[in-house]
Amino acid sequence: MKKLVLTGARGRLGSYLREPLSKLCDELVSTDILEAPTSLHDGERYVQADLADLPAMEALLEGADMVVHFGAIGDEAPFETLLGPNFIGAYNIWEAAYRNGVRRVVYASSIHAVGMHKKTDFIGIDAPHRPDTFYGLAKCFAEDLASMYWDKRGVEAVCMRILSAAQPTNPRAVGTWLSYDDLIHMVERAIDTPIVGFSVVYGVSNNDRAPVDNTKARHLGYHPKDNAEAYAKEIYAEYGPLDPQDAANMCHGGPFSTIPLGESGLAALNLNEDDVAKS
Question: How many CB atoms lie within 10 A of CB 125?
Fold first, then answer.
């Protein structure tokens, strides 16, 4: 590819993608609402911009082959707080992609789009939306937007419903862990698969206890390698028996399933220091 755009490049997950994506194109344009990082990779250019600014997004995507859209507030917050970056920002990315003839949007969706489903249901990519928060609702909106722009305007999309992209530190993560290497692999497959139309894939590693089914996403060639089972014995010993009546243990959204709407859910996830530092 000649030009690839990465939004949310200063975020916890976007920061892991900058170097590998820079190797897939002649020019990687990284963007975020924050100031530029201290250093850039070969072939990388940085543009500070606001997702809620449609003209800025349209200019940013000019001449791009694809856009990898990770920009957003990555936590539950009041609807009014999420409206600009997470809802309007998603519309602006797809509209700017359409206006510029961008072929594909690779989108960082989330398990929270289906967070109120029970983990024991072993849901597939065709599970109906069941958001657990305003944050999850924004992911539902963007997935439906992606579907509509494919059906009506021919803009391809891969919506990656990321589960737990941080080191396993709690019982939920034994099933939901997505390693950073597998994250990069998933994004690469979302980019280099020749035809995707509108596709959904769960962002989860090759965990023995993964609670979701990616069978219908096999056309993407995503084959994760890491397995959180290596952490299971230690984590289960630390936490002891879990309450099966607690929705935080039973639902895909974990703590996001039980927090009041508009209140942060990240604090309950017990991220380690390295993961928090990347936030």
Answer: 17
